[in-house]
Every structure is written in structure tokens, then in C-alpha cells.
Write a structure and sequence with these properties.
alpha/beta; 8-stranded mixed β-sheet; 6-stranded parallel β-sheet; 19% strand
């Protein structure tokens, strides 16, 4: 698997070199370094990757293509500490993976996991002083512990309700993906928006795509006007599986088992929403019944599909192809590309395809994180999501990327896409979240 990653990156470098040599684009220092970086990352991955600990399902956390450039030192923005409660270490170690215990502007005060052993592990990893038997219990004691925020890394079916509860208790909220789960929870979407508004607190969904280097550069280009309006975008989330066990990833009460792929769309759809901060307005989704047993013998979701492919319309008139695939053996990865009126960006080559003269003043480097704060997995995105949210709490002039509106827009388009697939690819309008 690691060798394939290396060969794929090497092929992309040669392909880019061929395009440049053909006169489609001038070679410059940035293009060469960007292309070479993909090969370097693959070499590092292939040579240094180690198998996860026994019973530790990483789910993308083993990626090492993280930010290595410390040329721009991290600059403190406050001397205050945000008091944090973390809920959920789970099978993927989500609770400790985003580095709240490593950031100088946060202090992990309390933690919880429904599994006592995982709770102890979360406490050990984060240094939390107190533990609780449930997230609900921790939220109820938030005033006693003087908590400022909670990070909800629990099972997906509980995300929305716990987020609303925490906001109603006057806490800032960070939630793992997705923001809510499925059509059964659509009624909670306006309640999340209302809870944020009434509480005056901040909300973030930890969508890792937002701070992958490729998506970060796409957003920089878009905000600078270098791509113009987006006319086409693609997002792909392939999760390696096998025909016998499907995803083969553990989950509380089996909520992942036979889950409709588009109920967990954010690693794909964020390649548009977290670039433009805009929404999809309609979707047509095609799917083929899966060969995997959990999809063929009936399941809690009444879902026969292991992969779903949606064509979505953007609010500005462009279109996007978004893929979530859970039953394609030996394929794994999260990638995307966007094409605008003036230029495009493909994360395979990690470079802008357009008039390079207009981007010479854009700084594409992610600033360094605080000393001792790792970028983390999913392309080095974890630490940046944490830093972005803490900065927003402590600096009123800073606006974090994946706020409540973007979080819900990134999620709801997938839910309507699955509904479309279940209706034989009927085109459905996607409602505005607020």
C-alpha cells in the first residue's frame, strides 16, 4: 500500500513535468517544490510508517504528510487558557488526536468516554484532572469545573444533540464529523443554528479537509480571486474495505455498520464548501447495490449502497462531482480538485494551473504551530483545526473556517444525496441551513 502511494506520487511528478515541458505552464521554483513535495512525502511515508498499535484503528491518522516548514514562527495571540472538556477517545483516539493537551492556550480539565478503559487512556493522554461517566454528565458539571468549551468526539448519532446541550449550557463547541447523522436528524439542523445564536458561543466541526495543504491553498487562491468563480469541483473519499467485513472499523453500538456513504460526506464535500464557504443547492446521486454482506442482508439504515456518486449544483451555478466509496477494495484516500473561470487546482500535483503572475504575492505556507504542538494526521490538519478554533475564542477579530453554517452545509448535501440515490437518482433541492 505504501509503495503504491510512492509510485502514484512519482507518476504525478513526471506527468506535471511533461505538462510543463509542453509549454502549458512555465516552470518556476514554487511549481517544482510543490510537485517534488508530494514525492518526498510518499518517500517518508513509505520508509517511516509503522503499523498501528494493536486495537488502535487509525482511520487516516497515520498520515505523515504534515507541515514541516517552521520558517514562519507561531505568534502568541493571548496569554489566556481555554478550559476544555473532551468527550470520546473511542476506537480511533479522536479525543486526544487534535492536540488540545499540547496547545499553550488550552487546558484539558475534564474528559469522558462511555468505556471506562478508554476514559482512563484519554485522561492519561490529555492530563485531564477529572473524569466523568458520560458527556452529558460532564456538560452538567461544566460550571463547577469552569469549562469554557467541550470537544465532542463521541459516536456520530450523538453529535448534534450533545452539541445543542453544550451550547445551551453556555459552552463553545467543537464537534467531530459529521455535524448530524442522516435524514432522521434533519430536524436538529435549525436547532443547532438557533442554539449557536442564542448562546452567543462558537461552534466548529472538525473537518480535516479544511486544513489539508491542498484545500488550504485552494482557499487562499479563491479568496485572492486567482481562480475566479468555481465552475467545477471534485471531492473523493475512498475508505479501504473488504468484501467480507466492509469498512471493518469498530463503532459504538455499530453505528458505522452499513452506514449510507453520503451520511458521512464531509471529507469529500469540503473540497468545495471549505474552499468557497458557499453551498450546494441541488443533488443527483447514483449508487449501485453493494456486494458486501452487511448491505445485502438488511441493516438499521435500510441501505443497500456501499458507494455513492453525486453530481451537485453550486449556488453560483457551477457543478461538482462528489464521491464517497466504502466498498471498493484496496482503494484509500481523500483528494479533490477545483476549476474556476481563471484557473484551477489539482491536489495530485499540488499546484495552481493558471496565470502564475497573479499568485506571486499569495503566501501558501501554513504558519508554524506552537512548540510541541504536532500538526497531526489527515495531512497535518489536526493541530490547525485546534489552533483555528482557540484563536477564534480568544481573538474576536478572527473567524474560524468550519463554523456552524459551513459545518451543516458540508453535511446536509450528503444526506440529500443519499435520499436521491434511494429514489433512483431523483434530483433533489438542498435546503438552506440558515
Amino acid at each position: 500500500h505504501q509503495t503504491r502511494k510512492y509510485l502514484s506520487a512519482l507518476f504525478q511528478l513526471h506527468l506535471l513535468h511533461w505538462k510543463l515541458a509542453g509549454g502549458r505552464k512555465k516552470m518556476n521554483r514554487r511549481n517544482f517544490i510543490s510537485a517534488t513535495a508530494s514525492v518526498f512525502a510518499a518517500q517518508v511515508f513509505a520508509s517511516e510508517w509503522k503499523a498501528p498499535e494493536k486495537n488502535e484503528v487509525k482511520g487516516g491518522f497515520d498520515e505523515v504528510a504534515s507541515d514541516l516548514d517552521r520558517a514562519q514562527p507561531w505568534e502568541p495571540y493571548s496569554d489566556k487558557k481555554v478550559r476544555v472538556g473532551i468527550a470520546g477517545e473511542g476506537v480511533c483516539s479522536f479525543g486526544s488526536a487534535f492536540g488540545y493537551q499540547n496547545h499553550p492556550n488550552s487546558e484539558v480539565v475534564a474528559c469522558t468516554d462511555l468505556n471506562p478503559e478508554r476514559c482512563k487512556l484519554l485522561q492519561k493522554r490529555t492530563g485531564a484532572k477529572k473524569t466523568y461517566s458520560s458527556c452529558e454528565d460532564m456538560i452538567k458539571h461544566a460550571a463547577e469545573d469552569k469549562l469554557d468549551m467541550v470537544y465532542i468526539a463521541t459516536d456520530a448519532p450523538s453529535h448534534a444533540k450533545l452539541s445543542i446541550m453544550a451550547l445551551e449550557h453556555g459552552l463553545h463547541v467543537v464537534c467531530a464529523v459529521p455535524a448530524f447523522l442522516g435524514k432522521e436528524q434533519l430536524e436538529l439542523v435549525p436547532k443547532i443554528m438557533d442554539a449557536v445564536k442564542r448562546s452567543g458561543k462558537l461552534y466548529q466541526m472538525n473537518e480535516t479537509t479544511a486544513f489539508r495543504q491542498s484545500c488550504y491553498e485552494m482557499r487562499k487562491l479563491y479568496e485572492a480571486g486567482a481562480m475566479g468563480e468555481i465552475v467545477y469541483a471534485e471531492g473523493e473519499y475512498f475508505h479501504c474495505s473488504d468484501l467480507k467485513n466492509g469498512l471493518n472499523v469498530g463503532s459504538y453500538n455499530g453505528w458505522r455498520d452499513a452506514i449510507p456513504p453520503m451520511y458521512y460526506p464531509t471529507h469529500s464535500t469540503a473540497f468545495y464548501t471549505c474552499v468557497t464557504r458557499k453551498r450546494f443547492i441541488e443533488t443527483t446521486c447514483i449508487a449501485t447495490p453493494s456486494l458486501i454482506k452487511q448491505y445485502t442482508k438488511g441493516n438499521r439504515y435500510n441501505n443497500p449502497y456501499g458507494s455513492e456518486f453525486a453530481l451537485m449544483k453550486m449556488e453560483t451555478g457551477g457543478s461538482a462531482r462528489m464521491i464517497i466509496a466504502y466498498d471498493v477494495p484496496c482503494v484509500n484516500g481523500e483528494r479533490g480538485r477545483v476549476w474556476g473561470q481563471k484557473g484551477g487546482y489539482d491536489d495530485a500535483g499540488m499546484c495552481f494551473l493558471g496565470d502564475t503572475a497573479q499568485i506571486k504575492n499569495i503566501d501558501f505556507k501554513r504558519h508554524a504551530l506552537p512548540k510541541g504542538m504536532p500538526p497531526g494526521g489527515h495531512g497535518g490538519s489536526h493541530g490547525y483545526l485546534t489552533d483555528d478554533f482557540l484563536r477564534a475564542i480568544l481573538d474576536p477579530n478572527h473567524h474560524h473556517v468550519v463554523n456552524e453554517k459551513i459545518a451543516l452545509e458540508t453535511t446536509i448535501c450528503g444526506v440529500y444525496s443519499h435520499m436521491s440515490a434511494m429514489r433512483d437518482a431523483e434530483t433533489l433541492k438542498i435546503p438552506v441551513v440558515g
